[in-house]
Amino acid sequence: MFINEYILYLPNNSTSNTLIMEIKITTKQILKVLHVISWIIFIGLCINAGGVIFNTFFTLVLNPIAARNLWQEVDLSSLLSFDKGQFIAESLFINIVAVMKAILFYLIVKILHNKKIDFSQPFNVEISQFISNMAYLALGIGLFSYWGENYTKWLITQGVSMPDIQDLRLDGADVWLFMGIILIVIAQIFKRGVEIQSENELTI
Fold this sequence. Notes:
The chain has 204 residues and is mainly alpha-helical. It has five helices and two strands. It has one domain. The longest helix is centred in the first third of the chain and has 35 residues.
């Protein structure tokens, strides 16, 4: 078990000596904190994805006026007035990115919650598959964010009043693509590690 040690020096007012406090935080404790944080982010992303999907459906089927406040004060009423098909296309980009982000954090929550995984032997099929899925999702989020961002810019050139890319949650495409490529490299390293481990077990 890896242990991160943090040493805090505090002055002692009663004597001239220095009081040393040593705080030890284990990897297991860090994983528990990350598990809680992941749950919070996952719930938030699920609410965001559900809200966008519901409001898009509500706008298209029941009440077009709802486009003025699609989700979190995002106003797509100008786009809906311009062309309903373009509104559906833009909404698809927003919905796909929102859902993929929620799925990505679902995988994180699932891997941290799964007690059957042996972290003492990280080169196993479950971890390798987890990293691969993360990589493909990150690439997917990056690609759809990139397409959505360019599509939004094109709509603006057509004279449509559009919210900021940040408000549409389509920003950061380059970061997602960069992370996806890094995760693919790590996934291939883990995949090779699993193969070598299997070969060694067969040899023994």
